[in-house]
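pasting for ref
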Amino acid sequence: MKPLQRLLIYLSINVVVSAITTLLVLVIWTYTHPQQKIKASIEDNPQNTIPSATFAATLPPIVTAEKSPTPTPLENVEEYEVQVDDTLGEIAAKYGLSVEEIMEVNGLSDPDAISAGLVIYIPVTPETPPTHTPAPTATIAIDLNATPDKKAGSAAIVINSVIGVGDITQERVFISRTGPGELNMAGWQLRDENGNVFSFPQLQLFEGGAINVWTTKGSASVVDLYWGLQNPVWQPGEKVTIIDAQGTVRATFQIP
């Protein structure tokens, strides 16, 4: 055999052996490399825990259950706690409602979806407040032609005169006290014949005291009261009357 042929055969054998050797190395690396990686990870992590990022990647995706909406309580509702063996039909009948009305208020789609301990809302009709009927006001019959009540030895009122008749700046009724003691004139009235009325404020008139009731506006004092009118109220020949809180005529005066 020629030397050149021998060389070629020798090289071919070397190539085949090298290829087989390389293939064996790759196979061995494939089987040994993951084990080395895991071993290295364990050595770096002495507590034998899997890194959180790696662990999270291995978990299946978390599916969040959709929470059923909680019905918003209405303004006119009543809370009811479902009892054992309660049915929605029985509850509806108890309150005079339909099952559909209760389901609508509570956002229920299944009438059987209730259990003991569950609090549901029951629609109620607001009570209509009772209509307040004011008590009739007692009407006091006033007889302006009655004789003034003047008991002997008791406090009395006298209309002495009407001054400045027809002049708004001067018009006033002059009133004085007779008899002993004090006289409370709160609620008393001064009247003319045309329905005009002046009501006395809280006023204590002592024995021998006197007061003017002016037709115009002004600041009240212990001796002057003001009606607050813009025009004169008294006329010649008109009758002036004072009545007490019980409607009893206590004094009269005929304007000259």
